[in-house]
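Forum: Protein Structure Q&A
Topic: Joint prediction for protein chains with partners

I've read a bunch of threads here and the consensus seems to be that you should model interacting components together rather than docking separate models afterwards. I'd like to see that in practice. Below is the full input, 283 residues plus whatever partners are listed. Could one of the regulars post the assembled result?
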Amino acid sequence: MPFSKVQGKKTEHKVVVYALSTCVWCKMTKQFLKDNDITYEYIDVDVCEPEEKEQVHQQIHSKGGNLSYPTVIVDDKTLITGFRKDKLKEALEL
Amino acid sequence: MKSISIEAVQARTQADANTFGYHLTPNPDLLQGLLEGLKTNEERYGYPSCPCRLASGKLEYDRDIICPCDYRDPDILEFGACYCRLYVNKKVYESKELPTVPERRPIEKQAKSYESAAETKKAKTETATPPVEAPKEEAKTITALKPKLWYCKQCGYVVFRDEPPYICPICKAKKEMFAEIKTRTDFLG
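Posted by a regular:
Agreed with the consensus. Here's the joint model:
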């Protein structure tokens, strides 16, 4: 799938963001990660190809997510739904 | 592609907020971002679906998330703001403290956006090499999605949809207050 990578100085955590290009809360999440210099990957699901959408569905579902955006997965284990600064800070040890 | 101005989107949402006694979000950056999202979706799909939800691009699946969505009123009642926090009540507007609003849209409806994308792809593949059973499958899908006429037993509001709205947009009665209008077509030919 076409994940885009944003390079920051902090690379200790694997951060994946499932987002929508139209969603302002997703933009804020990306900006928050950028401001904190965190390396992350993201995918804008609404502009994906149909088969990629299906893959995203399965990926989020397999991690116990509920298809809300943004969904942030930290180190393949912590799933954060919505733009939650407190939870992001906790997971990323900021 | 029809181009829509941000001002037009804002005027429409503001008018709707005024009608229902709500406010638009007090955060100017958030408001701008939400309006831009609505504009993009309206230009992309032909209707302003919620910028914070994945739309299928098919009106029959997205009807409930066209802004103002079916879930706005119950969300504002319970949390003081809608899911994307475009619409808020007076208390939230004045305090400027935006609440976290969980997704109320049923998971089956959300899943449709992904399934329908896969279906479209499947249909395209089938068209390329048409199998014998393809038309039968298509007919089945159309039957399953046939819209009906529903009326609100409280205020008389009538809507033509696959199922009644989550809440009546006029009198706020719950979904259970809607009944189907059974039309007789036998002697209409």
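Confidence is low (pLDDT under 50) at residues 130-143 of chain B.
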